[in-house]
From TrEMBL:
UniProt xrefs under InterPro entries: AAA_22, ExeA_AAA_ATPase_DNA-bind, P-loop_NTPase
Protein name as it appears in the record: AAA family ATPase
Highest taxon above the source species: Bacteria
Family annotation (PANTHER family): GENERAL SECRETION PATHWAY PROTEIN A-RELATED, MU-LIKE PROPHAGE FLUMU DNA TRANSPOSITION PROTEIN B
Species whose genome carries this gene: Flavobacterium fructosi
Length: 281
């Protein structure tokens, strides 16, 4: 492992700690990482830190040694606009976009650049307690021994003590109803104080519409709190792909057209195709 890699992690970690508000909060938001270890890294005491731990810290704070130049796509600009609005004005929005449109990366970058912004990448297996654990962890709060009610109260208390907090629930369509109802609780207890963003594929908007038609518990309340509207992202266009290709070393018009036509408007596929084009024999 090179010294340059360690220096890059050091720089990225400094930004991460600043974003979280303190070294202890940063450590609490990372799995298997102590505040003492962060102190060693920040104080350049690197001799006794294993390569495994360097990689662990790097991956959790979003650092990668692989070169890839990020480009601000059309959807990135739209997402950034609504995230800023939500955080600065305690607004609540719901947005939908296709898989591979760059939503999650846009959220990662926003959170890394803005204090008191917390991102949850939701999962199907989360129950009510796991949802709260994940939110407290992202906030850098020790939740040891807390009940579900105590965790919710702690979240509300901490967020109300902060200036312009923001919660981003990515892939919110994966949450079961019992957990999705927590959105209503968070809204009710943090209205006019905390911004909230729900984001997913269009499966979420279809789920909400169906739930309303079937008069399912909570769905009308959720729809009301998001302003009865889903913001639809525009998806990946040719100009986006062109900028990404040029930024990452592919400038041939022919190659760019090939990459776009093969991408199915999925940025993950764009990245794979750029790699393939650059490594042609």
């Amino acid at each position: 492992m090179t010294t340059d890699f360690k220096k890059q992690v050091h720089e990225k970690l400094a930004l991460f700690i600043n974003q979280k508000g303190s070294q202890n909060k940063a450590a609490n938001s990372l799995n298997g990482v102590s505040s003492a270890l962060l102190s060693q890294i920040m104080n350049n005491n690197w001799e006794n830190i294993s390569e495994t731990m360097w990689r662990n810290v790097a991956s959790q704070i979003g650092h990668s040694s692989k070169e890839w130049v990020f480009v601000e796509t059309t959807d990135f600009k739209i997402i950034s606009k609504f995230l800023t609005d939500a955080q600065q004005n305690a607004n609540v929005f719901a947005m939908t976009g296709d898989a591979g449109s760059g939503k999650s990366k846009s959220f990662d970058l926003y959170v890394s650049d803005n204090k008191n912004a917390y991102l949850l990448s939701c999962a199907e297996y989360w129950n009510r307690k796991e949802f709260l654990v994940q939110l407290l962890t992202s906030m850098g709060v020790d939740y040891s021994g807390f009940t579900v009610a105590e965790m919710m109260n702690e979240i509300v208390k901490k967020l109300k003590s902060q200036q312009n907090p923001l919660i981003i629930l990515d892939e919110a369509d994966k949450l079961p109803d019992t957990v999705l109802y927590f959105f209503i609780t968070l809204y009710n207890r943090l209205e006019d104080h905390c911004g909230i963003i729900l984001c997913a594929t269009d499966h979420l908007s279809k789920r909400i519409s169906k739930g309303i038609k079937l008069n399912r518990k909570g769905y009308k309340e959720i729809n009301s709190r998001i302003g009865r509207k889903f913001i639809e992202l525009k998806g990946v266009n040719y100009n986006d792909v062109t900028q990404i290709c040029i930024a990452n070393g592919v400038e041939s018009t022919k190659d760019i057209k090939e990459i776009f036509n093969d991408s199915e408007c999925d940025l993950r596929r764009v990245k794979r195709k750029i790699h393939a084009v650059k490594n042609r024999v």
